[in-house]
Amino acid sequence: MSSNNAVVEISQTASQFRSSIVLQAENKYIDVKSILGLFTTLVGGHSYELHVHGPDADEAKQAMTEVFAKYNLDVNIISD
What digits encode the pLDDT tens for the residues 8-21? Predict the structure, then answer.
């Protein structure tokens, strides 16, 4: 897996939605639409939490789940 590809695809996928999509990794919160933020945070073997809020949150959650799974990244979508 190329983590560069994962970062770019995750960011591009997130950018298709109006919802706020925030990745929580330990005590850091990263805007998933920020490629730079993802580069410094996204490392294999970690478990992440994804917080999605907004008008298209359901679609965004589905798409983000798929793109994380594609790169074998462990993500837990937090539903409020």
Answer: 999 999 999 999 99
Q: At 2, is the secondary structure helix, strand, or coil?
A: coil
Residue-wise over 9-27: b if at least 16 C-beta within 10 A, else e? ebbebbeebebebbbbbee
Give the DSSP per-residue string, 19-71.
SEEEEEETTEEEETT-HHHHHHH--TT-EEEEEEESTTHHHHHHHHHHHHHHT
State how many domains the chain has.
1
Contact 42, 13 (CB under 8 A): no
pTM of the predicted protein model: 0.86
The answer to whether 11 and 34 have CB atoms below 8 angstroms apart is yes
What CATH number is associated with residue 7?
3.30.1340.10
